[in-house]
Amino acid sequence: MESMAWLRWMIGAFALAFGLALAVPAAAVTGTPISVCVRPAIAGQTPATLFRQPRGFDCTISQTQFGSGDFWVLSQPLPAINAADHTVRIGSTWVNRVTLFVLYADGSIRHAGFTSRTAGRLLGLGAVIVQPLPSHDAAPVRLLWHVEGAANLRGLILGPALADHDQRDTTEILLAALYGAFGGMAIALIVYNLALWGALRQAFQPAYCLLVLFLLAYAVTSSGALGQMFPTLDNNDRQRLNTLFLAGSAASALVFARTFFEQGVFGGWLRAASSWVIAALLTAGTLWAAFAPWQFRVLDTILASTYLLLLVLIPIILFRAWRMRSNFLWLFALAWSVPIVVASLRVANAFELLDWSLWLDNSTILSMALESMLSSLAIAYRIRLLSVERDTAREQEIAARLLADTEPLTGLLNRRAFLHRAIGRPGDQMLLIADVDHFKRVNETIGHDGGDEVLRVVARALRNAVPPEALVARIGGEEFAILVDAATPVMPDTILERLRSQRMPFDIAVTASIGSCTGPLLREADWKTLYRSADRALFAAKGAGRDRSRDASVLPIAA
Description:
Layout: H1 5-28, E1 32-33, E2 36-40, H2 47-52, E3 69-75, E4 86-91, E5 97-104, E6 109-115, E7 123-124, E8 128-132, E9 140-150, E10 158-164, H3 165-200, H4 204-222, H5 225-229, H6 235-260, H7 269-291, H8 296-323, H9 329-350, H10 358-361, H11 363-405, H12 415-422, E11 425-436, H13 439-465, E12 471-474, E13 479-485, H14 492-500, E14 512-521, H15 524-543, E15 549-551
Parallel strand pairs: 14-15
Antiparallel strand pairs: 1-10, 2-3, 3-9, 4-8, 4-10, 5-6, 5-9, 7-8, 11-13, 11-14, 12-13
Helix pairs in contact: 1-3, 1-11, 3-4, 3-11, 4-6, 4-11, 6-7, 7-8, 8-9, 9-11, 13-14
């Protein structure tokens, strides 16, 4: 666990830096909040009458309790401001038309407004409608909105506030920096993981790219940037896309989790349950986007319920990962803790348990920006573990291959490995066959264990007496083979002298005889020819009294 300390410190530093970054834009929204009251619209009502006789407005009941339809929304008396220097900020909602009427100190009433098709020209970052106050010589004293065709899922006039131009510009700049930073990070993460996927081919990498791609699309639509890029885009259609991409983000996050954890975590019924939740999220998001505002409340409740299912599934996944001692549990929990909390708040808002706010409305992209940053570190750690696993597997494979190629008693090549490496070497090769003299007598004198030790000493002496590139193998009981390039031959007498100088078990005297031959070794037939000649030379050395060498090229041709 100590080896992961560096990663925890890095993640903590990123989280702290990100938290400080979020604190700046939160403090920058310094507009003056406006309290409002609501009443349903009735035919024949006029702004002048409602300003003059503001009876029937409810200031206590939540706006969502009024249901959908047409409404009047009246502000409390305004502080002293200059209309030319101020704008009114309200959260973007599903409406057909909003008309803002402004009552001035001299009794004049002026109006401005937008429809869902023209809202794009007033849309600021954070999906906020920034409505300039109509210019007039007198100061504005009260505001009245006429809201037509409101779905009223989260409210009618959300978070109304007065902001001067400096406050508006500061907020836009900070939000632009935040969303721009997230966009750049998202694109970099996609490119980085796709590039790594080309080399590693891990399933969690394309799944993560899909998640970040959906988040990027959600950021573009939820931030209002899409409306700014395409002012003629219907604001209600922008919200359709926003809902669809949010559902896609939630579904792809679950897909990513299934590929990020070890396979056993999502085994059995949990895999089927997660598949159903993924399908439910995509289906509910598509239905909302395709059929709204038809049965708006029903569609929105279904969509919110699928997010609730996801929240119910998350602790089950984490518990299963904990039970299976997943190596990635703490990484996943750390990266996703903030998005899970934010998703819970958004679901609470959808079920009218929590009031709307600008930062709650933008909390998803903020939390997912933090998640993307931490998940990228988690993926880097996962790749590091993968690299360690592959290195270990490669080392084990090399060790297994060495064991398969090595004769266990002496550590030299065995006959199969020797032939595999020897046959096909270009140019003439020098083959030396060494055989321990009177080895049966050695075993009878010092026992088989002592005989094994003699073979190990002989093998070590042979290995040390030849160049590093030479092949040395034990090819029989006490028979050894040495193969070197004929251009750099090894003198057999040098090898014999090395053997004579070795201290043997119980200080017994051990000698060997060597037969050598030189020739091509391109095919198996060449090996047989070379070996027969070297073996004949070895036999000649034995016949001449042992502890000596003979070369096949100087032997008389056999009759």
